From TrEMBL:
PANTHER family: 2-OXOGLUTARATE (2OG) AND FE(II)-DEPENDENT OXYGENASE SUPERFAMILY PROTEIN-RELATED. The keyword Cytoplasm does not apply. It comes from Podospora didyma. Signal peptide: none annotated. This is Fe2OG dioxygenase domain-containing protein. It comes from the Eukaryota. Pfam families: 2OG-FeII_Oxy (PF03171), DIOX_N (PF14226). Residues 185-296 form the Fe2OG dioxygenase domain. InterPro entries: DIOX_N (IPR026992), IPNS-like_FE2OG_OXY (IPR044861), IPNS-like_sf (IPR027443), Iron_ascorbate_oxido_reductase (IPR050231), Oxoglu/Fe-dep_dioxygenase_dom (IPR005123). Belongs to the iron/ascorbate-dependent oxidoreductase family. One of its GO terms (molecular function) is metal ion binding. The lineage of its organism: Eukaryota, Fungi, Dikarya, Ascomycota, Pezizomycotina.
Length: 334
């Protein structure tokens, strides 16, 4: 077993070398698959290193994301997120409210509402009928935006398939068990920007966060974070524990639909993004992250996985259509 990426308050998030699953001998493959499954069953989170997505690709995508967020607000708003069914485009919740704490009434409002200090841009599969992506016009800094993002989307899609293969092997299922459930790529690439923020914002309102606590909805999420920190994962006893960035790794967490699919043998764990740990400055610098939300094909029927129940009455949930489930969850959020 390798060292833990995070270990505190009963939460152990393993750091796993994914190349041993991809390129190792049979023994290494099996051992790695079991470690991955065990991480999802106990913490709901793992860190993967040596994934096929290179550091260069990652740096390029982060740079391109930052260029998007530098566009004028009006331009970004013209690509606004519309409906749960489309789930594509730009969201700027609460940004103005939290950066202009001028009068006492404003402060009071923020105290009670404290919206997340973040903006995001969602990109879906580029060939989903009826739901085009909201690509920004490509001039100036934005030349190449679409190809950068679709390339990255496809690489993440392939990694989803591979991680699901590891889960299948860990569960003693055929390695390709999930292939036909995840081959369409009904996934969402979310670029995230947490703007720079004065420390006092967090002092004025102790409830202020960059992203409120939540679980993710789908199968797994591939989370790429920069070096700033602030991501926290809820431990079994209910404390939030720092999921400190480790260079070159990808944080992977299980979502609610995978938990349901596994008859709750896999955990979808609550997490959030808060004020980053100690800096000497008055202002916290911006934080960028990229979440790739993986889902089973929207047309898939999700029913308790073989081996997760002994008899029908041990199934905790009804079978459900993946797309319906996800739209239901998104409808409740936005
Ligand atoms: O920005 C992060 O590190 C986490 C984002 C997240 O959890 C989400 O968007 O679901
Ligand atoms: Fe999340």
């Amino acid at each position: 077993m390798e060292k833990a990426a995070v270990q505190a308050d009963g939460l152990l998030i393993p750091l796993i070398d994914f190349s041993k699953f991809e390129n190792g001998d049979d023994g290494q493959k099996l051992e790695t698959a079991k470690a991955i499954l065990n991480g999802f069953q106990t913490a709901g989170f793992i860190y993967l290193k040596n994934i096929p997505i290179t550091a260069e690709t990652r740096a390029h995508v982060f740079g391109t994301s930052a260029k998007f967020f530098r566009l004028p607000l009006d331009t970004k708003l013209s690509h606004g997120w519309t409906t749960p069914q489309a789930n594509r485009g730009y969201s700027a919740p609460g940004r103005e409210k939290v950066t202009q704490l001028t009068d006492i009434n404003e402060v009071e409002k923020v105290r009670t509402s404290a919206p997340d200090i973040k903006e995001s841009f969602e990109i879906g599969r580029d060939d989903e009928p009826g739901h085009p992506n909201q690509w920004p016009a490509e001039h100036g800094e934005l030349v190449g935006f679409k190809s950068t993002m679709t390339d990255f989307f496809d690489q993440c899609k392939a990694l989803h398939v591979e991680v699901m293969r590891a889960i299948a092997v860990g569960m003693g299922l055929a390695p390709g068990f999930f292939d036909g459930f995840v081959d369409v790529g009904d996934n969402t690439l979310r670029l995230l920007h947490y703007p720079e923020v004065k420390k006092e914002v967090f002092q004025i309102n102790p409830g202020q966060v960059r992203a409120g606590e939540h679980s993710d909805y789908g199968s797994i999420t591939l989370l790429f974070q920069d070096a700033r920190g602030g991501l926290q994962v809820k431990s079994p006893s209910g404390e939030f524990v720092d999921a400190t960035p480790i260079e070159g790794t990808c944080v992977v967490n299980a979502g609610d639909l995978l938990a349901r699919w596994s008859n709750d043998t896999i955990k979808s764990t609550i997490h959030r993004v808060v004020e980053p740990p100690h800096t000497d400055e008055e202002v916290h610098p911006p934080r960028y992250s990229i979440a790739y939300f993986c889902n089973p094909n929207f047309k898939s029927h999700i029913d308790a996985l073989p081996g997760t129940y002994a008899s029908e009455d041990e199934k905790k949930y009804e079978g459900i259509n993946s797309g319906d489930y996800l739209v239901q969850r998104l409808t409740a959020t936005y």
